[in-house]
Amino acid sequence: MRLLSLSSGTLPILLAAALAGCAPASEQKGGGAFDAANARTYGADERRIAARLSLGNGSELNSDDSPYTQAVMCRAAFDSVAERLQQTGALGADQVRAMETAKGLFESRLASLARAAGKSEQTVASDLRERAAQSDAAASARVLVGCLRRLEEDARR
Q: Is the Cβ–Cβ distance between 1 and 138 less than 8 Å?
């Protein structure tokens, strides 16, 4: 289901914002520089293992869950990370616009799937609250990265 599309530059902004939301405020300062001279090239097996272990590799979104449940997970994760980022004031104008676009996508997808599943607004709100209570900031960031990757995949189709 393609409701809205993300521009090609939006996903990196959203991923960076989601990752920033994962770190404690004390660690949200600039990091060290990348040292290309000491960079190592990894083989296919190492890259495959790293992909399985990577943040937001999609494993947080269980394929056994219904599309509605996955939409609830994505929306709750988005809300959690967005709230955390707004509290820190860590978003620039481009990131705010990207977050607004993503919020619209997650809201539209959840509303559409809720209607298809016969869920009332009260049930959706209750499911969102329940999901939010089950996740910490790091888990929400991992889920959100997986959700954003799925949005990108959907936009490419």
A: no
Dig out the tokens for 59 from the structure.
């494993």
Q: How far apart are CA 81 and CA 77, in angstroms?
A: 6
Provide the H-helix boundaries in the chain. 10-22, 44-53, 67-88, 93-117, 121-134, 137-156
Pair of tokens at residue 37 = 């001279």
CA 1/CA 154 separation, integer angstroms: 8
**What are the tens digits of pLDDT across the range 110-138?**
999 999 999 999 999 999 999 999 888 88
Q: First and final CA of the chain: distance in angstroms? A: 10
Q: What is the structure's pLDDT at 30? A: 45
DSSP-derived secondary structure letter, 38: G
Q: Describe the chain by its helix, strand, coil percentages, rounded to 5.
A: 70, 0, 30
What are the C-alpha distances in Å from 124 to residues 33, 37, 58?
44, 51, 23
Q: Which of 57, 80, 43, 29 is nearest to 142 (CA)?
A: 57
Closest CA to 111 of 130, 96, 97, 125: 125
Residue in this structure with the two tokens 């999901």, named with its chain if needed: 131
Tell me which residue of 129, 71, 130, 95 sits closest to 18, measured CA to CA: 95
